[in-house]
Design goal:
265 residues, alpha+beta, 6 strands, 7 helices, single chain
């Protein structure tokens, strides 16, 4: 958290009430058959609630770390802290106010960097050197192979994931890298993205769009994905078109033309 519904105990809300003006109210569902059955409830102080939830998150992470110490296993435990997507706007969340995605464009459900690029913090005493950073490009499907490698278990050959254990151990030269990474979002008209090196290709409205609507960015010089340079690099665009076809396996479950509420722009 913070996740979609913004709510926190009153004793914590009191600490932050009035400190993040101007407040932004959110009108949700507070009664009737749908209450507590999916829709989010109203929140008059979304900024204070958001910060209060960060407070709770920080406290609970601290409790986990303290428990590891108390059990005497802190030095033999790997801890990973990350997120499943970029900041969201549901439930009254206001990522622009908090500059939640920094220089990146987009939010949750976008395939621009603001929607899919997330932090990963790892603590593993005796293995991960403190205060080190890496630019290794990885994704969530790499986590299972990484844990398998740590446990000295065989990684199934059918997986797309690549273990980033060498990076954790500081053995960058031994790190295998992805040829490219592929994402798709099957709602909101269908969205696809590929990153290969510093090249990033993005396609929106996949179900209705033509191949000519592909966007191309150089993340090395344009981390905010502000300058679409597809027309300047036709050879890269053609390569990305082939990769989009290669990367995708059709699914009867995740189709680009699903009639969900998220399909409405």
């Amino acid at each position: 958290m913070p996740h979609a519904e913004l709510a926190a105990p009153e004793e914590i809300m009191q600490k932050y009430r009035g400190k993040f003006p101007p407040e932004k109210a959110y009108k949700g569902v507070d009664d009737g058959p749908e209450y507590r059955n999916g829709p989010y409830e109203s929140q008059k102080e979304t900024h204070a609630a958001f910060v209060s939830m960060i407070h709770i998150l920080d406290k609970q992470v601290g409790e986990i770390m303290a428990k590891l110490e108390k059990l005497g296993i802190a030095d033999n435990t790997i801890v990973m802290f990350t997120s499943d997507n970029g900041p969201h706007t549901e439930g009254g969340a206001d990522p622009d106010y908090f500059n939640s995605n920094g220089p990146f464009k987009g939010t949750k459900r976008d395939l621009y960097e603001g929607g899919i690029r997330v932090p990963l913090i790892v603590k593993w005493p005796g293995h991960v050197k403190p205060n080190t950073r890496t630019d290794h490009v990885s994704a969530f499907w790499d986590v299972f192979p990484t844990f398998a490698s740590i446990a000295d278990m065989e990684v199934p050959s059918s997986l797309d994931g690549v273990s980033f254990l060498p990076t954790l151990l500081g053995e960058e030269k031994e790190q295998k890298k992805h040829e490219y990474l592929y994402w798709e979002f099957h709602e909101k008209g269908g969205r696809q993205a590929i990153r290969k090196g510093n090249w990033k290709a993005v396609k929106y409205n996949v179900f209705a769009s033509t191949e000519d609507q592909m966007e191309l960015y150089d993340l090395d010089t344009d981390i905010g994905e502000e300058n679409n340079i597809a027309k300047e690099y036709p050879e890269i665009v053609e390569e990305m078109k082939l990769l989009f076809k290669e990367a995708r396996t059709p699914s009867e479950v995740f189709t680009f033309d699903q009639g969900t509420y998220l399909s409405v722009e």
